[in-house]
Amino acid sequence: MTLYLIPCFLDENALAPLPPYILEAVKQCNVFFVENERSARRYLKTLWKEMIIDDYEWYPIHKAEEEVKAIFRAALLAGKTIGLISEAGCPGVADPGQILTGVAHEIGATVRPLVGPSSILLALMASGMNGQQFRFSGYLPVDNGARAKALKDLEAESQRLHCTQLFIETPYRNNQLLETIFQTCKPTTRLSIAANLTGPGEYIRTRTIAEWRQSPPPDIHKRPALFSLLA
Questions:
Q1: What separation in angstroms does the CA of 40 have from each of 14, 76, 84, 210?
Q2: Which tens digits make up the pLDDT trace of 124-158?
Q3: At what angle do helices 66-77 and 97-106 cross, to 10 degrees?
Q4: For the whole model, what pTM was predicted?
């Protein structure tokens, strides 16, 4: 009973950050639970051109409903080796794979996490901010008022604890988020913007809010990005 947590690329044109030993793990698997079946099949075929896709069982994770968890549990108890694949980055980190990994622990299966690109870790590493204490808050509220309040709360906590705050946004709302940040946060607070990590056009820059206001970032509309803040 083994579960491999198989990382995926952040950008489909950037396979270099994926260690070779990922392929060896893929070859051990009989069953794959994936966030997106179509893109996961394409990803594994890119890693292993000789792979016969129809020789494997495929199950979409969705939000790991009870039915999916039951299938997952039964596959492990039957002695099958499972690969868990997120849509981008590392499974179980800001994605529904964590629920199935919890099931694996409940029944005593071996869990093997594999190294691969993680936008959260890469953005934190490149930010120059506090890597000893940090928090990932996922998506902030869409409503402008609620989003501004959330940013003020994150900024206050960051200042109190000297904690780096990391968060993301749906790419087509990046510009609206930045506008709220520039209007809400203190001039001395530092903001790091990491867009298109590992891919062509990768952009990483850390400045104070005052500096960003004077010299705005390039347009990151519809570009995958992660934001880090330290007050």
A1: 15, 20, 10, 42
A2: 999 999 999 999 999 999 999 999 999 999 999 99
A3: 40
A4: 0.91
